[in-house]
Design a protein that fits this description.
There is one protein chain. It is built from 3 helices and no strands. By secondary structure, the protein is mainly alpha-helical. The protein starts with a helix and ends with a helix.
Amino acid sequence: MISAIFLVLYYALRIYFFAIIVYIFMSWVPNARDTQFGQILANICEPYLEIFRRFIPPLGMIDFSPIIALFVLRFAFDGLAAIQRFVYSLLGV
């Protein structure tokens, strides 16, 4: 049961990670974010990216906040793995 919860959380973070990457690449294609798929990704990714944009202003035309956001998600992967190992060690699995 616990492994299923960790697996669902892992895949949810993984899908969100790749959704942000796709959303970032869509900024390089003209009018890609104006499509229905682009709007869906914007609704999913922008609330998370906005947190980082408040603290990390763009330098010229380059926005570094998505890179930091991806690093934070990567740390979340590692944290989830550490929690999983801790819980398994408590349960003796």
